[in-house]
């Protein structure tokens, strides 16, 4: 496949080698192929990797079947993919509660398989939502952009906003939970606060108070497994419907990824994509 990019106005000049390795995080194997096959062009001309590139330059990258291995993803049902945004490189989809982001085996169908069916091509998981959580999920449409988006997540350049309905009330309207999270040695399905765990930071803002519940907005600086669920339950405010960290409920777990904000990796624009869950809103509207 051939990809063409115009470097944006705010681009800082750098050698082509740095652009490929340090800015776009292209793996070493694929950089080798680009160099040996002469598949990297600047302004339609062959270049050496030490050449400086500048804002406004056209970069052409060509990848063939040898450059990336196939994912061999089984297609699911296209009608189960609620696509919120799509372009040449990435796609954002609204995941319903109760559906996995990706399957654990090659034969298990999940959101990834349904998205692939909807656009008739493989897609690659950038991040995931818990099965019981609904909302916006980002997939890469090619293996070239996959490490770029992954690095953006690691560096907290991609922001996610969650809505959660929790038990009880808080004394503050805004606060931050900065508590490391680690594996629960007694239950592999659970996470716990642990000084030896991974750094985890959740910012919490009160949206609305009900009789004995509170609607909060949570934004993340990190993306640990079950992060919001563990952090809120550690304050004795578990998410309603969270059977793992709170109490069982006949209704869904009230956690929804309502917005994802992505600085586009190749274009000088910010994508702000919202997702709506009717089941979340239905329960919320019945809450007093």
Please estimate the helix content.
Answer: 10-25%
The helix/strand order is: EEHHEEEEEEHEEHEEEEEEHEEH
Largest sheet: 10 strands, mixed
The stretches of 5 or more residues where confidence is low (pLDDT under 50) are none
Give the CA-CA distance, first to last residue.
54 Å
**Number of discrete domains:** 3
Protein model, in words:
By secondary structure, the chain is of the alpha+beta class. It has three domains: 2-62, RNA-binding S4 domain (Structural Genomics Hypothetical 15.5 Kd Protein In mrcA-pckA Intergenic Region, Chain A); 78-154, Pseudouridine synthase (2-Layer Sandwich), CATH 3.30.2350.10; 159-286, Pseudouridine synthase (2-Layer Sandwich), CATH 3.30.2350.10. It contains six helices and 18 strands. The protein has helices at residues 16-23, 28-36, 111-119, 146-154, 227-234, 278-286; strands spanning 2-6, 14-15, 40-42, 45-46, 52-53, 58-62, 82-86, 90-95, 124-125, 134-140, 159-167, 174-178, 181-183, 191-193, 201-209, 213-220, 255-263, 270-274. Strands 7, 8, 9, 10, 11, 12, 15, 16, 17 and 18 form a ten-stranded mixed beta sheet that branches. A four-stranded antiparallel beta sheet has the order 1-6-3-4, with no helix packed on it. It has a two-stranded antiparallel sheet with strand order 2-5. 31% of the residues are buried. Its EC number is 5.4.99.-. It holds the Pfam family PseudoU_synth_2.
